[in-house]
Amino acid sequence: MTENHPAKPQAGHHNLDPHLDRYAARTAGMTASEIRALFAVASRPEVVSLAGGMPNLAALPLATLSTHVAEIIAEDGLVALQYGSAHGIPVLREQICEIMALEGISAHPDDIVVTVGSQMGLDMVTRLFCDPGDVVIAEGPSYVGALGSFTAYQANVIHVTMDNDGLVPEALREALAQAKKHGQRVKFLYTIPNFHNPAGVTMAVERRAEILEICRQYNVLVVEDNPYGLLGFDGQTYPALRSMDPDNVVYLGSFSKTFASGLRVGWVLAPHAVREKLVLAAESATLCPPTLNQMIVSRYLSTHDWQGQIKTFQENYRERRDAILSALVQHMPAGCTWTHPDGGFYVWLTVPEGVDTKAMLPRAVTARVAYASGTGFYADGFGSRQLRLSYCYPTPERIREGVRRLAAVLESEMDLVRTFGNVKSRAISGPESPSPDTA
Ligand code: PMP
């Protein structure tokens, strides 16, 4: 190699990017999520990571699965390794209907479009409905990957408050009334009704009909994102919004949390009228979802006790939830509040006034614990007093140790605040914390 070979491009040096003037306007809002930026540090073995939402797959029957894969390729390889329809393979779509029936949904397999994870569903739905400047209503806080899709299509997000029973209907009504008053075009309500990411709360069943009714009244579609619905710690399930208003709800499902996230198999169940456009959008994105992966999921569902497997996952996550909640009670300083999830992966923590969770993060990582700071879950910069703790992946012992470390960091942060005032004064003024918080 010569001395003067071209310099290697350096990641992150945007000023040196020769393509800067070429990017589409829609890329302006695209920034690496705080969570992604964190993964590299948080994955060092000495750090207890309560940051990422990686499912704990240790309980999967790997030997059985590898036999399935070998059988599928041996018996049906020329189909499994070939293009398929953009719709997804028929047998899997039928099985998906059976799964959704567990939450009260009655659907026809033709109305399902299999996707590359529900993330692709989010992208497609936003692509279909949002022009630049349109408004999406979302819970505050909301799923970071969904916010990324909304930003990518230049939609504006208006957050609506939650409490321990999920989205607050009155706040939704108020937000829609305000948007209407200001002539904003609201395209849909994006909601994660069950075991919310990141808030850890569930929309009360009594609220569901009212929320659907409000959306009907304002002529707003509902996008129901439900990857955690079958992960209730007591095996409990809740009626899907889709089951209550099939013509006005687009439902997003996924096998990522109930089976294997790496297979990237999810689905969209759209109102019949939307289905055709959705298939066209899927075609232009990927031509078709991966046939082999769909066949793996399908065989797993038809030959394995998948409901028993989900029960194992539930027990696994419940044990971790118990560990984190008891550690929080034991270690957290006064003034901190947090949610009490009864399913899913996440606890949402609110810290005392003056502490900035984003500014605190490097100090936490130095103390060998990582979390996701709250601002990443808002489109408007809110959330500096909040953070998300994921208890799904580490062992209960590591979770307890992580919470102990975090509490120590918080204590010293609060000392600093008492001595010097706010660690970083907040740029965003607004209503008191909209997070669902309980002591
Ligand atoms: N929606 C929510 C609320 C999620 O938490 C996630 C994954 N973290 C997704 C969608 C995307 O899941 P998938 O793996 O199916 O793309």
Structure description:
- It is a single chain.
- The protein has an 8-stranded mixed β-sheet with strand order 2-9-8-7-6-3-4-5, with helices on both faces.
- Mean pLDDT is 91; it is low at 1-7 and 425-439.
- It is an alpha/beta fold and 439 residues long.
- α4 (117-129) runs parallel beside α5 (144-152), α4 (117-129) crosses α10 (272-286) and α12 packs parallel to α14.
- The chain is built from 14 helices and 14 strands.
- Give helix % range: 40-55%
Structural class: alpha/beta
Number of strands: 14
What radius of gyration results from the CA coordinates? 22 Å
Mean pLDDT across every amino acid position: 91
Distance between the termini: 62 Å
Report low-confidence residues grouped into runs of 5 or more.
1-7, 425-439
- Number of continuous helical runs: 14
The H-and-E topology, N to C, reads as: HEHHEHEHEEHEHEHEHEHHHEEHEEEH
Shape verdict: globular
**What small molecules accompany the polymer chains?**
4'-deoxy-4'-aminopyridoxal-5'-phosphate
Give the percentage of residues in beta strands. Answer: 5-15%
Instruction: Trace the largest sheet across and list its strands.
Output: 2-9-8-7-6-3-4-5
Topology:
Layout: H1 34-42, E1 48-49, H2 62-80, H3 90-101, E2 112-115, H4 117-129, E3 135-140, H5 144-152, E4 156-163, E5 166-167, H6 169-181, E6 186-191, H7 205-217, E7 221-225, H8 241-244, E8 249-254, H9 256-260, E9 266-269, H10 272-286, H11 291-303, H12 306-331, E10 337-338, E11 346-350, H13 357-366, E12 369-370, E13 372-373, E14 386-390, H14 396-420
Parallel strand pairs: 1-12, 3-4, 3-6, 6-7, 7-8
Antiparallel strand pairs: 2-9, 4-5, 8-9, 10-11, 11-14, 13-14
Helix pairs in contact: 2-11, 4-5, 4-10, 12-14
Bound molecules: 4'-deoxy-4'-aminopyridoxal-5'-phosphate (PMP).
4'-deoxy-4'-aminopyridoxal-5'-phosphate binds near residues 53, 119, 143 and 254.
